[in-house]
Amino acid sequence: MMTLFDWIIEPLQYSFVLRALLASMIVGMVCSVVGTYVILRGMAFFGDALAHTILPGVVISFILGWPLAVGALIMGILTAVGIGALSNQGLLKEDTAIGVIFAGAFALGVAILSATGNYTADLTHFLFGNLLGVSQQDLIVILLLGTIVLAAIALLYKEFLVISFDPVLATTQRLPVTFLRYTLLLIIAVTIVVSLQVVGISLMMAMLVTPAAAASLLTKRLLPMMVVSAVIGTISSVLGLYISFYLDITSGPAIVLLATAIFVMAFLFAPERGVAWRRRS
Amino acid sequence: MSNSGHISRKRGVAHQTASPTLELKRVSVAYVSGASSGLTLRGAQHAVERYALEDISLKVGAGDRVAVVGPNGAGKSTLLGLVVGTVKPSTGQVNVYGHGPTGHTCIAYVPQRSRIDWTFPVTVKDVVMMGRVAQIGMFRWPGRRDHAIVRACLEKVNALHLMQEQIGELSGGQQQRIFIARALAQEAELLLMDEPLTGLDAPSRDAIFEILDRLQSEGVTVLVATHDLKMAAARFDQIMLLNRRIVAYGSPATVLNPENLLTAYGGGEMVVSESPAKSKSAAE
After folding, report:
1. Structure letter (DSSP) for residue B109
2. Based on the structure, what is the number of domains in chain A?
3. Which among A40, A160, A220 is the top mutation candidate for probing chain B, defined by the most B β-carbons within 10 Å of its own β-carbon?
4. Which of A200, A236, B24, B253 is the 20 to 30 Å CA partner of A141?
5. pTM here?
6. Order of strands across the sheet with B107-110?
């Protein structure tokens, strides 16, 4: 009979599963921490858009045989700066600017991809991730960029807190507000690049928003919110991968469904704030 | 730098102690409509420029407590924004201790309560610690001294016991007091408050004036934007009556006379009682 130990160990004898596990753990953690800023600053739409606009960069890297992260990162930076510049002119609202760039860039990516050979299979990988295809090299890139993102957040924690909570205070403290805003956009862009292979473009939003949203119902301070969000993200990723292995479901959706289930639990049963809790009182 | 200037212990430019705490010289701010309307007047040289504030000149001395009063749309918030540095003058000059506001970290701003997201995951202590950000410096975390200062500032506003509360759990008066504590943590010498007393009950107001009295005795200069004339007259040594221009500025007794009030508020009140519909369309 299969014991729990066997259940856990069994998939890990395949090295590609082990790499997938490590990759999804890192991504689950990094995405969830960055996600706290995404939801507190109301940037969910921006995050979703950024995930889609990197497609042409990814596709071009893919065709040229570069690491996917290179093209994605260039495209991510261009988008973040482009959206900022477009909405700073005061002619368009930010979400309008995002909408225009979002759809245009995504269409460009699909168009380029459609002109190449294995269109359907490749597009599926980009849209929904290809966790089991994570190579040694990919894993190193994920680890490196993930570490940079978490280090940047640790170093600029209080500055990001101030620009998110009270931008006028940031001005009176003479913080470099524009620099900090663009740095945060860049951090989100890098996070999306890191997560591309794990959840794919179309489910990126869930990794950025869902664990952080669940954590926001369970905590009252930013730092604990980040920690709880990271724990939820990591648990969803690891368990999601096992579920994917045993039930033969695609890994990205399995991870996202698990995170969503945790969110629903938090929404219903969070101490004092959950729906069930309120009903009783 | 002149000999009278002293090097500030804190970040930011040195203060020219010979200069007034706050000085505006012929400042105007052209009205720029929001991005949402899709129209801006920036660069539209031929358009008739409208001013949120026009030709403002004033001096405020150290330790003064000034109420900025005027009708809605008089430019009270814009005036505070000029001093904070978030609003740039179209013409003229704003000086704080002899320098433009952007060099200073000694200016603290307490926003209108409606402008703050009270559901944000921060405790009272976190908010007050935000006042220390400039002093702590980039890339660093607060040290023991910063924690001690935060406690001391909370003690000054009688809110030490609230330290661990999430800010949304506080009463209006408590919320206002912890933002004053944040200004203290910032080591502010010039404190600007936008409608701090709106919606507060009498005991909460008294508590805030008690704190402001203490600040005044410590030489902190305070500018408060308010629409409450009666309170301004009772509690402030100076009143600035504003309606896009400075109508009058001085002690309550000299400022609050019928002609000045008529100039600042116009016949608005009378029109309302005669024909509400007419005044409404005029306001739009």
Report:
1. E
2. 1
3. A220
4. A236
5. 0.86
6. B107-110, B190-194, B221-226, B65-69, B238-243, B245-250
Q: Which residues of chain A are within 8 Å of residue B40 when distances are taken between CB atoms?
A: 90
Range of A59-68, A119-128, A138-147, A195-204 with top mean pLDDT: A138-147
- Say whether residue B30 is in contact with chain A using an 8 A CB cutoff: no
Range of the domain at A26: 16-202
From CA B218, how far away is CA B174, in angstroms rounded? 22
Query: Do A208 and A29 touch, CB atoms closer than 8 A?
Result: no
| Domain annotation covers residue A158 | yes
ipTM: 0.86
Highest mean pLDDT among A66-80, A113-127, B234-248: B234-248
For chain A, give the percent of residues with pLDDT over 90. Answer: 54
- pLDDT tens digit string along B261-276? 888 887 654 433 333 4
Q: Are the Cβ atoms of A158 and B42 closer than 8 angstroms?
A: no
* CATH assignment of the domain containing A46: 1.10.3470.10
Q: Do A171 and B85 touch (CB under 8 A)?
A: yes
User: Is A218 domain-assigned?
Assistant: no
Q: Does B52 touch chain A (CB under 8 A)?
A: no
| Numbered residues of chain A with Cβ closer than 8 Å to any chain B Cβ | 40, 87, 90-93, 155-159, 161-162, 164-166, 168-175, 216, 219-222, 225
Give the pLDDT score at B273: 34
Find where tokens 């495209």 sit. Answer: A75
In DSSP terms, B249 is beta-bridged to B240
For residue A35, name the pLDDT band (cuts at 50, 70, 90): very high
Q: Does B284 touch chain A (CB under 8 A)?
A: no
